[in-house]
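Fig. S4 source data, part A: sequence.
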Amino acid sequence: MDNIDLKLLAVFDGIYKTGNISLAAESLGIGQPAVSMSLRRLREHFNDPLFVRTSGGMAPTSLAEDLKPYVAQTLALLHTTLDYRARFDPATSERTFRVCMSDIGQVTALPALLEVIKRDAPSIRIEITPVSEHTPKLLESGEVDLAVGFMTKLDAGFYQQKLLDERFVCIARAGHARIGRTLSLRQFQEELHMVVSSSGTSDELIDRMLQTHNIQRTVAVRVPNFAGVTANIENTDYLVIVPERLGMFLQKGWDIKVLPLPFEAVSYQVMQHWHERHAREPGNRWLRTVMAGIFQQPS
């Protein structure tokens, strides 16, 4: 097998179809000596003449007749393999996409993604899992197609695209007893705070921001995700630091007001992340394009 070149099969096929070495060479776009040399190699390998001269041209031997369907199948499979291009049509695809997304993204971005799916890709399914320390490995293995949110410490081989620049604000219930339309530094430090401590959020950035400004806050409640914020902030006087996009979203549907922080708020970038292995895959590219478009829309 080490001495067999796949091009020899094309020569075999050419001679079989034309019954003539010169015509076979012409159809293959190579010289007649190259065809003769290839036929010699095939004869040596199969220990059979394969094609013999007759009054009607080069006629196949019985072994060549036996080989013909296998050669045809092999060449057809080779052409199919070399011509293969992955295709993806969202309108007809029944694919399931798996996306790692923070709970903030599930509130602010997922509804818009589902609208696009409903309109443009009705048979596509979406599975959402939280962003965690396992997300990079899931992206690399292909178990997850895309990750959206704030992630750090990614190794080589990962791609990322900025979706938006984000900053922090403070939210409180609209009828807070002691805070009106503005928030002073004194009020920020005197009031009780609710803190979100979940993997994949920007909690680490918030702590670093407060340490930079040497600001203390009194934490009264810790919740694992932002669902705990929306369920409780309307009925308490707690303050909560949240990303501005989330704050503006909550203000539209809940009895909540958004307040600028009384100190310089750090900004950060929300990214979508994927692995190099799947960068050119058409379905993955479509999903990334849709996600980028969602974040370009006004919140």
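Fig. S4 source data, part B ends here. DSSP finds twelve helices and eleven strands in the chain.
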